[in-house]
Request: fold
Amino acid sequence: MFIIIIGAMLVSWLIQSRLKSKFKEYSQIPVGLSGAEVAQKMLHDNGINDVQVVSIDGFLSDNYDPTKRIVNLSPEVYNGRSIAAAAVAAHECGHAVQHQQAYIWLGLRSTLVPIVSFSSKFVMWILLAGVLLLNTFPVLLEAGIILFAITTLFSVITLPVEIDASRRALVWIDKSGIMSAVDHSKAKDALTWAALTYVIAALASIATLLYYLSFLGGRRR
Reply:
């Protein structure tokens, strides 16, 4: 099981590296609109007028904040006039469309955010202490596993949210005519690699959870 976890971490690193390479490649291919303009147009086309589009620091730090109704775009995406910038901007607006349409998986993920934010601060320390004190205080490891299970559930729920946001983005890109068919396929390629990072993260989290469960079960025998 431990080898599987290490393997998942390696694959995750390789996919992240490939994603950065794809973003760099597709950042060299121009389109007519900046990422900010793409975001504003997609929101407008979907009848969303109460969501702001702003620039934030960080490389590929793009996200949609449903609590503040803000599409946050990294400088490369906000100012960029490329396939990569347009694809990422449209993807984040896909989340805004999900929010508007009460997409159930986005709602579930948003519900878990406060719990995951809390548990992620302490879960690894609790798990470590639980492993070290298993023979004298086994409930500590059990508590750590429960907290980690919540973060794993969050990772799994994130998958349909991200995949659906990319689907919505690509449908809109096709209808809006901001790209040619060739450029559309490249945007799809970029978003596919981005989605793979979430798939690997979820698989790694599941594998880690199973490892701790097997560890706890083995020590109890």
About this structure: Strands lie at 52-55, 63-65, 70-73. The two ends are 18 Å apart (CA to CA). The first helix runs from residue 2 to 26. The longest strand covers residues 52-55.
